[in-house]
Amino acid sequence: MHCMAGLDSATSGQVWVGTTELTRLRDAQLTRVRRDQIGFVFQAYNLLPQLTAEENILLPLQLAGRRPDATLFNHLIEVLGLRSRLKHRPSQLSGGQQQRVAVARALVSQPAVVFADEPTGNLDSRSGAEVLSFLRRSVRELQQTVVMVTHDPVAASYADRVVLLADGRLAGEIHQPTQDSVVDALRGLGA
Description:
By secondary structure, the chain is an alpha/beta fold.
């Protein structure tokens, strides 16, 4: 995932985000692509503790010198249930609320793709289901591309397609996955 997101260099092959080949870009160009075309949702939230929820959400746009789309911002805040928490700092938010702030931050810049690294790993099952449901809705309603890395069959079942990796190699694929089909495929990898 780090290669796909332009965080690490590929040792061979090519990495494309939309029409941009990342493997040919210099550091400054990669920084612009990551800022303008890629959103990130991390397991550990990665919110800045001194900023409010609203400031954390808007930070990528501020760094890019762009104004937020007010309609999109308000939609994200409503759907994620953050309206009453915008002035709170991360330490004043639950884990689920912090992750919803991180999801809003990833989506507010309208990136070509959002990379989510174990986005529910630090959440209880209810908060995790809320975050996964919103990521699913962002695919349907906002036509957002989301690439999620997870070891959780429940989380994987929210995807349109699951790609299985074993020892760094493609080991299988499931279209329209269910929790059971993911569990079965994972069992098959261990055989």
